[in-house]
Amino acid sequence: METSFTPFLSLSGGLMIGLAAVLLMWLRGRIMGATGILAGALLPNNLDDWLWRVMLLVGMLCGPWVYFAIVGQLPEINVQVPTGPLMLGGFIVGVGVTLGSGCTSGHGVCGLARLSPRSMAATGTFMLTTGITVYVVRHILGA
Questions:
Q1: Which pLDDT does position 2 carry in this prediction?
Q2: pTM assigned to the model
Q3: CA 81/CA 73 separation, integer angstroms
Q4: Is residue 116 part of a domain?
Q5: What one-character DSSP code corresponds to residue 13?
Q6: CA-to-CA distance for 86 and 80, rounded, in angstroms?
Q7: Domains in the chain: how many in total?
Q8: Domain for residue 81, yes or no?
Q9: Average pLDDT, whole number, for the chain?
Q10: Looking at the domain assignment, is residue 93 inside a domain?
Q11: At a CB cut-off of 8 Å and minimum separation 6, what does 110 contact?
Q12: Is residue 60 part of a domain?
């Protein structure tokens, strides 16, 4: 499996995520954790709470179409994992998000910016687990 080195695309994506997180905190006083936003959209407290969450989720889904409007083609998506393991991985991530009280965007982007000790521990755990998983999959399993 080859990984492309895309520093400018990665930097621009990171800047946009950071800007969105800052704007959400500034305008709504809310942390931009994607799983918490999705959960709140599925089980809202009130109409106002539901509306901003759905608008943010729609914005996330529209991202590829904005890219299309600028570049003239949709971004290439090449998932080299069969559907079964992909669904299992999604389930495992969901369990981890529940046990960790948040996801990488909530802890890694927003929590670290707030110097939250819990987010520092969670993000360190995410990074360590990711490194071990990549090593096992690429170097031990040979995938």
A1: 66
A2: 0.72
A3: 24
A4: yes
A5: H
A6: 10
A7: 1
A8: yes
A9: 88
A10: yes
A11: 21, 25, 31, 32, 33, 119
A12: yes
